[in-house]
Task: structure prediction
Amino acid sequence: MQSAAPLVKMSGVEKNFGAARALTGVDFEVNRGSCVGLVGHNGAGKSTLMNVLSGVILPDEGEVQIGGVLLDNGYDPAGAARHGVRSVFQELSLCPNLTVAENLRISHPSIKGIGWRKAARKVILDELDRIFPGHGISPDTEVSSLSIARRQMVEIARAFSSVTSKIELVILDEPTSSLDQNSAAQLVDFVRQFVGKGGSVILISHLLGEILDASDKIVVMRDGRSVAVDEARNFDRARLVRDMGDVLAENSEFGARSGAKREGPPVVTGPAEDEHQLVLYPGEIVGFAGLSGHGQTEMLVRIFEAAQGARGPIVATDRAAFVAGDRQTDGIFPLWSITQNIFVSSLERLKKGLSFDFERAEREAQDWQSRLSVRTPDMGNNILSLSGGNQQKALFARALGSDAGIVLMDDPMRGVDVGTKQEVYEILAEEAANGRALIWYTTETDELKHCDRVYVFREGKIVAELSGDALNEANILGASFEKEDA
Amino acid sequence: MARFLTPKALRTLLPALSLAALLAAIFYLQPRTMSYFGLNLLLNLAVPIALATIAQMFILCVNDLDLSLGAFVSLTACITATWLNDTPLLGVLALAACVVAYGALGALIHLRNLPSIVVTLGMSFVWTGIAVLILPTPGGSAPEWIRTLMTLKPSLVPFPIIASVVIALVVHIGLMRSAAGTVLRGAGGNPKSVERAGWSLLRVKVTMFSLAGLFGVFSGMALVGLTTSADANIALRYTLLSIAGGILGGGEFVGGRVSPVGAVIGAITLALAGSFLSFLRLNPDWQIGAQGAILILVLALRLLVSSRERRI
Result:
């Protein structure tokens, strides 16, 4: 099939989000009748590339051709659908208030008129039977009452179903993340059948076994570039993990911090029955790693709740402060000044009689400004007058300024420039040396170099604890992607 | 037994069960209401409330809230009692303009991404102002044909019951069963995915707001047909009644979860609650509070049912 022109041809695609370079000149091809596996670590650019291909975002540079037709600026999701491109994205995109059959109608405008319901029922049921035999889903069930796994099945079946519109390429972004093994295997079989009939599939998955089984060709992405493109049979698990990681990265820096002394009792202890029990000692910086969305944030929230006195399997013996990663929704109070934003978690400490000690707050704000070098003429300015990185510094000051012994950080460096990062790393090391215990969830492997120990998360559980010599990128990646049979 | 009484079925049946319980209580207190004439009298005023509730339901379906509906129904009642009666052509044009204005509000709310509560709250003063200009003092008179329609006396089944069933069925088929209605409801459940599938959310919003305007106009006309005259404040309480009726009937404030049949039943329940309290010889001062208590009771029951649903 290599003789025919490729179905999809993307060349030199670039996309920047502010200062962050999501895609730096990617070339990407999909042939008719083939399945392309796409793998890479967090932020490698997989989802951005697929969003460009399906018309959700426009690239800054480069061109996209489908079936030999150059797609210009007017390209949008509806245009993608006209070219026969369908997508199943990670966030579920069904309408929860409609039935399974009604959801099919949303994506197939050609189903209409009297008897449309019957037609829709038949199309979706046939497709479900074809992909997931024995699925047990009724087309008249409201989607909200289906389990997550079944919703995902419906979504996949909807993407593969065809009424009058053509269907050339289906993009599956983590399609099996909530399917059980049996259904996931059914899907891999179906993908092979579909490809055999001349269709094309792009498969993104963190289960490397699945990628190796289903794909003809595998593209490995790292840092917004495709770093390896080869026939699937030339890959194995070890090579995929190796290619995903930065082989030449200065692994030497890993473990530079480890070997910190453990003094006194731990401030956080997880359930003892876990294979890798979570413990945190004062003076430690502990990293949370793994692919994003595998339970790291949930764990941070549970520790935070335990520190506030919630009963549960996690025990925390000190107070905790939280540094949110999503500044806009979880972090800042947009109408307040920088000073007010910093002291919102220290109100108790800065009380003077019945009122708030504004002078002291002002003085401490000045200290924080010089310590974190917050770039502003006046700490009384509105928080939004700061750049993103400096807003994040204010959030760090809020957490570090409180008297909490535990600091929980939820991917706090998202969209922060390199200079700021270096400054914050130093502050964190200082705070740890002062006896604070820090947990740092980050999606950037490089940042784990600043941790004493790292817990790797997969599917909501801690699957590895790395420290000392074992703490390096290869081991982190290996544990993030491990498959059940490995 | 347990198989049929699933929490989901219970939740669907809850509005009907509340209505049945209320009716049973009224029949027990005042057996004379259990007649053609009695039912006619009891349910007469439920028809405009049901129409207004349907109008509110269209707005709820796209995750918005209309706080101007009562003022709007008052305005259309004033137009019906004056222009539509005296100069029918001008009346029809004015009512059509009202519907178009509602659609335009929907477009404004969508395009500027404004909170519907604020926009409609502001518009409620506009509607009342226009109504006062058209009819400064209570008065006017109902066009003869509306009067005839609203006082129909079909044999066997009283008119309000037939009207309610027709309203519920027409909207049910249009919104819940048709292919186009599915897209309208889908836009309430997951707007992003509906837009990604190539539908225009602007058109959805305009359609829903126009439908709400249309049913608001119907509500005002029906009200004048019953009262034979209008004033600028005649239907102000419809705003809250329609929201309460829509929610009572199984609708939810967000997520595109609405039920036309439930909305009509909810409206009738609220209309009957007033009569029920009169039959109890409750001091009228307490009636509004007691109506609220009934509402809280039914909603608490629903919460109980849904929490059981979640546990299963």
